[in-house]
């Protein structure tokens, strides 16, 4: 069917279609490329913005993240925690050898923010014009809460949810199949980027919204009037969250473990008093899903529709006064306050429930809280639709209440940072809270949508300028590996303050404790997303399990296969092997607590048998280095250090970093006079890396099966690791330029249509 002129919406077509094209190319790139740098480089894909911020702040490499250690065995899995635009930019930058893709990546991040704002603008237009869109919008609350519930599954394709829901509603309202098809594309994009155990819940919520709209807008369905009441959505949400809770309980009974916020499954072993001490964060953890502050990741993706839920939740408390509503309010408040404090009766009872990892992490209590919150949200929507629009006083009171609530939560977030040291994303939190308040005012007082869109764009520009200033001129430390605080402690002394000894033993066993006595590590501990980084240039190396030991790169997989026979594991404990033992041996093997770059200048080179040699494992555990030559036919070497490299700074080893990006490393290395030295780079070995020493090509040795190494003669040398070449870089910029032109065209046409007074959505007949 040919579209009429008034139904052409270029801003709503060019940008979504462009995103889908980029997403298809993005997936095609993953499928076609069988090899590109992983391991430490995987952290750039997974926490790319965080690692770039860390580098810009301290000049250090992205440190090891215990939860995403050493990549995956299948590159396609890297799509998790990424998004079609910025991840596409980062992937091509890595593959094509771009020396620094930070500015390109940043552009796409803010493009995503604009797409998010555009989708929110369109969806909020429907909020004002159609009561049915309110159901769709609060359905988005459920979708975003799924992601926020578990910080380790934070997925940024969520920013496509508003556009997807907008086209879904529009397709059913206008009975146009291509709109519905577009909405399915956006829905699939937002689902694919999530871990498998969230996908069924996504499908359930999308299915509920699909059925609701189908029954509402297609003729011949007798049940239409009953479906117009928000209680249908409330009970739908109740079923969703109860199903969510049931799913986790069943899976925990079957032995599957889940990472709850700031906790890992090993916390089952902590004493009761330690477990109860976690209740202090009950208020913050409970409020975050409703006010929209993400515990980790990029908070821009968390604020937009979660706050709408908070609006109607408070509206229900203020305006709904039935007996049923009173009972639900009391239950909500009971479960809202129940997890707090060290004397929570529910926490004490949950601690003694057998094999209930979910309850032990108090996630179940938060799920129950959201069940009652969802019912109250539905009641709030119902009352909101019943009230006379002329009742401005109620809306004004609600706006004030929500504004104070958002400000209060913002103060809770910023207080610990101002009392210590403000982190990079405090400005983002501040601007996000401003957007939250503006969104609340939009919903409650019905501001002009164009003004709200302009405010959002101005805030994005302001944040871009602040980020540029912070990264460029306000760097606390110069471009070098510097120590923030020269504090190196014995791990037992440090860990006793944070984790009891019995948990230490349960995770790593006595062998770790024996190693800890002679191998001090830095006092860095990843405590949820609030990482203490006294020495930022030294890897995390604590008795803490790596999340998924089976998702590892091929070099590390070979290393694990080598280490496994020594463990003497029985067939009855495969899960124990997967979750604990290899981590223990692996952390020892790579040099626990050492910098990414290690210069060995005092050593003995010994001939080494192939990897089948049973003595190899013992040599590796003694912190030796097994070196394989870049050319076939050369015998491997066993490097037996007489003394070990300096562990505090790179300069103490004679290493100075000149330049660094995700696929480019340039060093100035000064070896001791009169002696050669081995430089070990604890980043994954890959055949596509190139090496130049003093401008001349050189071969890269393989260290300990998984890492890079090279031998340097005495003197001062310029060392340069690169990945890719000029043609790939040129292709990268060509593709990025195409994307920039595409997005710019959509923005220009959209602005032009707004300037002419045209609508950004196909029809004005959405009075619903």
From TrEMBL:
The chain crosses the membrane at residues 12-31, 102-124, 133-151, 157-172, 177-193, 199-220, 232-250, 303-320, 332-353, 359-385, 397-415, 427-444, 451-469, 730-752. It comes from the Bacteria. Keywords: Membrane, Transmembrane, Transmembrane helix. This is YfhO family protein. It comes from Candidatus Lambdaproteobacteria bacterium RIFOXYD2_FULL_50_16.
């Amino acid at each position: 069917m040919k579209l009429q002129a008034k139904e052409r919406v270029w801003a709503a077509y060019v940008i979504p279609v462009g995103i889908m094209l980029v997403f298809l190319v993005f997936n095609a790139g993953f499928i076609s490329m069988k090899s590109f740098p992983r391991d430490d480089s995987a952290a750039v894909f997974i926490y790319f913005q965080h690692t770039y911020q860390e580098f810009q702040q301290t000049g250090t490499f992205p440190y090891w993240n215990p939860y995403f250690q050493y990549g995956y065995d299948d590159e396609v899995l890297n799509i998790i925690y990424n998004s079609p635009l910025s991840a596409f930019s980062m992937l091509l930058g890595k593959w094509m050898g771009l020396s620094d893709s930070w500015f390109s990546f940043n552009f796409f991040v803010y493009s995503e923010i604009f797409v998010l704002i555009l989708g929110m603008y369109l969806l909020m237009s429907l909020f004002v014009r159609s009561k049915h869109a309110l159901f769709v919008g609060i359905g988005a609350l459920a979708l975003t809460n799924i992601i926020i519930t578990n910080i380790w599954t934070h997925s940024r394709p969520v920013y496509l949810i508003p556009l997807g829901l907008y086209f879904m509603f529009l397709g059913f309202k206008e009975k146009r199949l291509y709109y519905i098809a577009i909405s399915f594309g956006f829905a699939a994009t937002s689902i694919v980027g999530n871990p498998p155990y969230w996908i069924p819940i996504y499908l359930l919520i999308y299915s509920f919204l699909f059925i609701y709209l189908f029954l509402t807008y297609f003729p011949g369905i007798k049940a239409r009037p009953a479906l117009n009441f928000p209680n249908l959505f409330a009970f739908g949400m109740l079923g969703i969250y109860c199903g969510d809770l049931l799913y986790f309980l069943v899976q925990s009974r079957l032995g599957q473990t889940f990472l709850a916020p700031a906790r890992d499954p090993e916390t089952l072993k902590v004493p009761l008093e330690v477990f109860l001490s976690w209740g202090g964060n009950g208020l913050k953890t409970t409020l975050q899903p409703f006010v929209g502050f993400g515990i980790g990741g990029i908070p821009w993706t968390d604020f937009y529709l979660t706050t709408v839920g908070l609006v109607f939740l408070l509206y229900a408390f203020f305006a709904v006064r039935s007996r049923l509503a009173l009972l639900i309010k009391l239950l909500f408040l009971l479960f809202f306050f129940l997890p707090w404090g060290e004397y929570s009766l529910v926490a004490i009872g949950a601690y003694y429930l057998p094999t209930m990892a979910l309850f032990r992490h108090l996630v179940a209590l938060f799920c129950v809280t959201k069940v009652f919150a969802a019912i109250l949200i539905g009641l709030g929507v119902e009352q909101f639709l019943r009230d006379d629009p002329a009742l401005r006083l109620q809306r004004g009171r609600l706006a004030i209440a929500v504004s104070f609530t958002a400000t209060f939560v913002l103060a809770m977030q910023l207080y610990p940072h101002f009392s210590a040291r403000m982190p990079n994303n405090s400005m983002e939190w501040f601007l996000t809270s401003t957007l939250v308040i503006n969104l609340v005012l939009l919903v409650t007082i019905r501001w002009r949508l164009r003004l709200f869109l302009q405010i959002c764009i101005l805030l994005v520009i302001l944040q871009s300028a602040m980020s540029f200033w912070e990264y460029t001129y306000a760097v606390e430390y110069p471009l070098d590996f510097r120590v923030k605080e020269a504090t190196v402690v014995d791990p037992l002394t440090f860990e006793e303050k944070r984790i009891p000894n019995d948990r230490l033993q349960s995770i790593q066993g006595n062998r770790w404790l024996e190693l800890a006595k002679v191998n001090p590590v830095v006092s860095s501990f990843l405590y949820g997303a609030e990482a203490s980084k006294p020495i930022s240039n030294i890897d995390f190396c604590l008795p803490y399990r790596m999340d998924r030991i089976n998702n590892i790169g091929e070099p590390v997989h070979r290393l694990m296969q080598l280490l496994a026979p020594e463990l003497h594991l029985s067939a009855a404990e495969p899960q124990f092997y997967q979750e604990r033992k290899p981590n223990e041996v692996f952390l020892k093997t790579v040099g626990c607590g050492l910098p990414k770059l290690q210069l060995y200048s005092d050593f003995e080179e010994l001939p080494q048998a192939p990897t089948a040699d049973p003595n190899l494992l013992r040599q590796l555990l003694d912190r030796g280095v097994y070196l394989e030559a870049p050319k076939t036919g050369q015998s491997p070497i066993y490097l037996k250090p007489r003394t070990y490299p300096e562990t505090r700074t790179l300069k103490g080893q004679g290493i100075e970093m000149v330049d660094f990006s995700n696929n480019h490393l340039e060093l100035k290395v000064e070896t001791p006079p009169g002696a050669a030295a081995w430089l070990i780079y604890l980043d994954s070995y890959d055949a596509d890396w190139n090496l130049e020493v003093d401008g001349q090509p050189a071969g890269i040795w393989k260290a300990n099966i998984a890492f890079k190494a090279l031998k340097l003669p005495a003197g001062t040398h310029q060392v340069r690791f690169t990945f890719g070449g000029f043609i790939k870089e040129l292709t990268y910029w060509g593709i990025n330029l195409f994307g920039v032109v595409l997005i710019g065209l959509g923005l220009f046409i959209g602005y032009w249509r707004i300037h002419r007074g045209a609508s950004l959505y196909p029809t004005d007949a959405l009075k619903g």
